[in-house]
Specification:
Blueprint lengths: L30 H4 L2 H4 L13 H4 L3 H14 L6 E4 L6 H9 L4 E6 L2 H13 L6 E5 L2 H9 L20 E5 L24 H8 L3 E6 L5 H5 L10 E7 L2 E9 L13
Parallel strand pairs: 1-2, 1-4, 2-3, 4-5
Antiparallel strand pairs: 5-7, 6-7
Helix pairs in contact: 4-5
The protein binds S-adenosylmethionine (SAM).
Length: 263
């Protein structure tokens, strides 16, 4: 049986939630990322917090803002709920909340310290209260959110189920280390810990956008829909002229790969 999921109240910041102000405080392997802190979070000095791991995967603010705008353009307007499946320290979630496009934003993160940073950062941006935070594994949480039973909705503390036909997903998964930097074409079937097929199988009933390495194999992405099926969008996102990542926008499909029509 799927466990019931509760909205995560503000989790406490821990020793893992850092705000470094001097390079001497920063572990040597993170110093080059910390040097880019104002590109990542222009308001870093307001007290932005990150866990060590988050520095490797956080989305720079300009990119997060642009993705949030594009989601509003590319995903059909009848989608009113957005689920950020891998919230990290909140850069994308904050941009989605700032965009004002979504009636409901659910942000899921399985690491408690990282989620505490995201909640803290969203509060600094003044959007923390617009977001429903969930602490858990997003594959399990998504099953819960989209399961037909509505009985848990009677529990005021539980996260309310979503209407699948009005929900879009955003996924910025881990990429499995820095191998993508050297690969001329990144093999999405080998991406760790979740490969493209695993994610697509879990998300296919809903429009979903995946934030992937810039060199991701476009043929593997194209094969997600049958020929003549719905069109997939791919956008490269650059900072200072260099691509940081691509986002692939994949329309919802029925069981046979047909596009699910929006009303
Ligand atoms: C690349 S980071 C996301 C970065 C985020 N977009 C940001 O800008 O901060 C991936 C995050 O997914 C979390 N994660 C990994 N597997 C998860 C899962 N199954 N469910 C929820 N979170 C997960 C990791 O803890 C990590 O914080």
């Amino acid at each position: 049986m799927t466990p019931k999921y509760m909205r995560a109240k503000s989790l406490p910041l821990t020793d893992e939630c850092h705000h470094w102000t001097k390079i001497g405080e920063v572990p040597w392997d993170l110093q080059k990322y910390w040097q880019q802190r104002y590109t990542i979070f222009p308001y870093y000095d307001e007290g932005i917090r990150l866990t060590n791991d988050a520095w490797f995967g956080v989305t720079p603010e300009t990119v997060a803002t642009r993705i949030a705008q594009d989601m509003g353009q590319i995903i059909s307007p009848d989608k009113t709920t957005l689920v950020d499946l891998f919230a990290g320290v909140g850069a994308n979630t904050i941009a989605f909340a700032q965009s004002g496009i979504w009636g409901r934003i659910i942000a899921i993160e399985r690491d408690a310290a990282t989620l505490a940073c995201a909640q803290h950062n969203a509060d600094l941006y003044g959007v923390g209260d617009c977001i429903e935070w969930v602490h858990g594994d997003s594959f399990d949480v998504l099953k819960y959110l989209t399961s037909p039973s509505a009985e848990d909705d009677d529990d005021a503390a539980a996260v309310k189920k979503v209407d699948v036909s009005r929900t879009a997903l955003f996924g910025s998964p881990p990429w499995g280390g820095p191998g993508y930097v050297t690969d001329a074409i990144f093999d999405l079937s080998g991406m760790e810990p979740y490969n493209l097929a695993t994610m697509h199988a879990a998300y296919r009933r809903m429009d979903h956008a995946l934030f992937l390495p810039r060199t991701s194999d476009l043929r593997q992405i194209a094969r997600l829909v049958p020929s003549g099926g719905p069109k997939i969008g791919v956008v490269q996102y650059c900072v200072k002229g260099a691509s940081k990542a691509m986002v692939t926008y994949i329309p919802a499909q029925g069981e046979e790969g047909n596009a699910v029509k929006s009303n």
